[in-house]
Amino acid sequence: VRAEEIPGAPFGEETRKMLTVALNDAKAMGFDVRDFDGYAGDVRMGPEGQDPLGILAHLDVVPAGDGWDTDPFEPVVKDGRLYARGSGDDKGPAVAALLAMLAVKEAGIPLNREVRLILGCSEETSWDDMAYYKAHCDMPRTGFSPDASYPIINTEKGMLLVSLRSPYEKNGLVRSIRVGERHNVVPGEASAELNGGEELAAKALEAAKKLGFEADTAVNGDTVRLHTLGATGHAAYPEAAKNALGELLLILKELGVTGGLRTLADTVGMEYDGLSLGIRCQDETSGPLTCNLGILHYDEENGLYATLDIRYPILCDHKALSAALTAAVSDGLTATIDSQKEPHHVAPNSKLIQCLLDAYHEVTGLPRECLSTGGGTYAKCLDEGVAFGCVFPGEEELAHQANEYITLDSMMKNVRIIAHAIEKLAGE
Length: 428
Description:
- This protein is of the alpha+beta class.
- The chain has helices at 13-28, 91-106, 128-136, 198-211, 244-254, 259-267, 318-329, 351-364, 408-426, and strands at residues 32-36, 40-45, 53-58, 76-78, 81-83, 115-120, 142-145, 148-149, 152-156, 158-166, 174-179, 185-186, 189-195, 214-220, 223-229, 233-234, 282-283, 287-288, 290-299, 303-312, 334-341, 344-345, 370-373, 384-387, 390-391, 405-407.
- The protein has an eight-stranded antiparallel sheet.
């Protein structure tokens, strides 16, 4: 059954269940809740009126992927850590925000503006949830999203999603490749079916050793399965991961691959700064451009299909970037711009940012500063929105990776920080 055929579940049955649980929990706490046809929901407290304070979080998650030590969809508490897909991105922070609202409510703190927790269901994909919400409800002008890192992120890079295509090469080196499920995930493993036998397998392993990559092969008749192992990660921070798909392409290049696959190896490979694509750039406020090769499908029926997830600095001209990239791959690939999101920046001296930094410093004693990110959060949905939490400086960041977790101590610290922020921004 397709998601659109399930009433009230535009993003599938499991996400629908998650939204129902969240809204029912909030209602049981005494909050007013609304369900916007399964696209999103909200939880409200305080006086209704103009200029509500928005807290935007999401309940959808990326696929679990491989390498978990526990069931990613059965939460496990071990050694003070809660392990589960979404514990850090972004269901754990959503729970922290809800508990912060409950703390303010039970403390009897009078409010002079509405506080609204908006729960989305397609942040990891289309953002159709926020478009639907905005079309059916007033979107707050100001607020924050607990979906990144502390102290505060007031600058988010622009986002460009590019698809690359080329024809299939019959009787070529590569029979098929199918790697990746989401463009915003760095593939930690990759494999290809090659036309060849023991001699080709030996050459592949020799090439991997020369390049310093971890790889293995399996031979079945006239087919070699080449497998590479890297380290998965978030597309916004590719420098912290190791793209197994890039490794695979560079080994294939050593073996003499041609066509679109060769172009992809030459122009992307293991690079995540866009150098060979002719798009490397940076600015002082938002830092360097990043580029992630997240998906590569190649077979006789459909040809080559690949995606590039690009996060570009706020001063970069995305039209010039697109033109340069298209020209760089034109020898073997056709590039299409699938989507583009503008960069986002809020002045650091704004009342919103100063109040949030005060709340953070009062609870943690840590320095007050603004940061930039390649990650895209719902902060972009607000005229004046920032990402605020929930990962603390020095903490391990495992969003989109195996064994994702949030510590119980961090969870409760987040509750206190968000409660302080609500009091400062909405309290009388």
